[in-house]
Amino acid sequence: MKNIVVGIDFSQNSVNALRHGAAIAIKSNAKIHIVWVKTPGAATKLGFTDEEQLLKKANTFLDDLVVATRAEVPKSEVQSVILEGKAYLKLTQYASNLPESILVVGSHGASGFEEMFVGSNTMKVVGISKVPVLIIGNNVQINRDLTRILVPIDTSFETLQKMKTAVLFAKLFSAQVVLLGIYDSPAADIKHVINIQLNHAVSMCHDANVRYSASTLEIHGQISKATVNWAADEDVNLLVVMREEEDDISSFWLGSNTRQLVNYASMPILVIPNVDHFAINK
Known about the structure:
- The protein is α/β, with parallel strands linked by helices.
- The protein contains 9 helices and 10 strands.
- The protein has helices at 12-28, 42-45, 51-72, 87-96, 120-128, 163-173, 188-208, 223-233, 256-264, and strands at residues 3-7, 31-38, 78-84, 101-106, 133-136, 148-153, 176-183, 212-218, 238-242, 269-272.
- Strands 3-2-1-4-5-10-9-6-7-8 form a 10-stranded mixed beta sheet, with helices on both faces.
């Protein structure tokens, strides 16, 4: 991992997201990019008399964040960046142009400068990002030093693609990978496929020399809520999932289970796109 891009909207939640990004940089020595996007008409909407006044305020806030972050992560390079346009587009484009990058965003911004990631805007970032996105919920009060990383395993071929990133984070934090085979059907053939996938995931952890555990869970009902509840009971402090793809462009191709996980989770969620942008051994 070489680059950590943190979207800032000047809410407390986005500053909390920055602190989580800093925790990753401490382990990886990655460069931190603190990015604010000036959206069209932002000065008027936010009550500033002109663009100059808005930018002066933004630069002061960003400078303070850079100083504080450099003090926390002295071995990493830290820079602030101001972009202009639609926040989710500019942020994802910026991150995709950096090698071995991840995006870190807060899921619920509060009015301050700009509610950049409130509601559907977080989903737009996740839905179009070509790099993994770490989502920090509004009420996430969790130890930033990761110890248990949950990787749900299902019947899809893509389910194992998230293992590379999960293993990378496990190595950075000396954390345990918690593999969970999810049975959402009583059918024997479905369980058989999931068991095969689970065995592959176990082999990947073993080959990477990371600690792991493997369990199964039979779910009758809403998969996302049951998964989050299980994670909370097991003291998981990072949930790694694949982005679901849909054909409906209005939803930015983001599946309903991914949206529900973001809404329910009390721990950070790392969403992996179906793009091989990120690899352990680069």
